[in-house]
Amino acid sequence: MAFSILNNIAGIQAQNQLALNSVNLNTTLLRLSTGKRINSGADDAAGLGIANSLQANVLALNQAVSNANDAVSVSQIADGALSQVSDLLTRGFSLAEEAATDTVDSAGRTALDNELTSIKTEIDRIATTTNYNGLALFTNGANSIGGTLHVFVGDTSQVSSIAVSIASMSTATLGSAQAGYLSAASLTTADGAAAAIQTLNAALSQVSSSRADIGAGINRLQSAVSVLQTQSQNTQAAESNIMDANMAEEISNLTKYQILSQTGIAALSQANASAQNVLTLLKG
Which of 18, 21, 29, 197 could form a disulfide with 260 if both were Cys (CB 3.0 to 4.6 A apart)? Predict the structure, then answer.
């Protein structure tokens, strides 16, 4: 074996391996501190791209769940308001039935008509003021749902929405052209009261139909929430499989690279010391 002091090959090899061990040790420490296997594109460029796409999809799905839940709240507000309108119309039936009989005089019919007028006023008030965060539910206009609540429940790859029908409402539209509209109903005469019964029946049928549409929309939204939550959970699991570090493996690597770093330093020290052996030849 030749002795050389110009090129300490053993020292260079030990130094290179020590540098490599240091890089691996730093990578392991980073993964342990972040909990992620991929911390930059250098770790796994393809995996990082897929994981970022999955993460964006999870955020979109979670927002879709929030959209659907908000829409359920809107629908429940509308249904609650219509429930009150149904109660008012039911009371109107009692008034009209009473006013239609000949046992009630004109003064009595006037009193009954006054109460019906109050009922109509309250129905219009409910229709005008019912809103969700300032968004009118039963009136048409710039700041209203315009008869249909459109709910976006898609993700990053699919455009999907659910439409919930919430019909506009007022005493001018409740009823029908044939039976008459609620705004014109009067109980001041027996004939008027009899006609009002038909109007109230048509109005109540409209409200019941609207509540049925809203109920169907709520059921559909709740089903969508269930599906979206499951999809979000599974997408997060897929992202986790790509991004998350195997903590047991990384802890094992930490021990390995710490030992290799220590032995590498010792090896480099020994390689540098071996060159000193040349001096013993000079002492002879």
Answer: 21
